[in-house]
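Continuing from yesterday's entry. The apo prediction looked reasonable, so today I'm repeating it with zinc ion included to see how the binding region is handled. Same sequence as before; SMILES copied from the compound registry.
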Amino acid sequence: MVGCCHRGSATNEPPRPPSSLPAGFLGDALELGTDRLTIVAHPVAAACCCLSCDEPSIRVHSHYQRRLLDLPSHGRIVELQLLGRRFRCRTAAGVRRTFVEPLPLPVGQRFGQRTSRLDGLVQHLGLVLGGRSGAGAD
Ligand SMILES: [Zn+2]
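Holo prediction written out below.
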């Protein structure tokens, strides 16, 4: 059985300590700048299950880079540069011929530019400040 990107071995991993590196990804590089920490990583799973027919596929159609901002660390912006993959569906009768490998849910949304936890912090701050941008700057 081939482990899929959003199921299988990735979800069976033991709990990990909080980290900016998402589960199911392997780090390639860390770039430390004066105001930014960039983490470059790629997915470990060889296969991904089609979002329509649920059949696993190992046929990668193309690659792209996803950039997500994560919670800041020690005063630095944390940016994730994750290798994204588009797979070909193995079933010819399927509605989709290709599909994008989803990110693990705690990491981010499909079209998001922030991780879920940074998004949650931004929403919380928005609620606390009552939608008053720049509040407290007085
Ligand atoms: Zn399919």
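Comparison notes:
- The chain has one domain: 8-128.
- The CA atoms of residues 77 and 84 lie 21 Å apart.
Will overlay with the apo model tomorrow.
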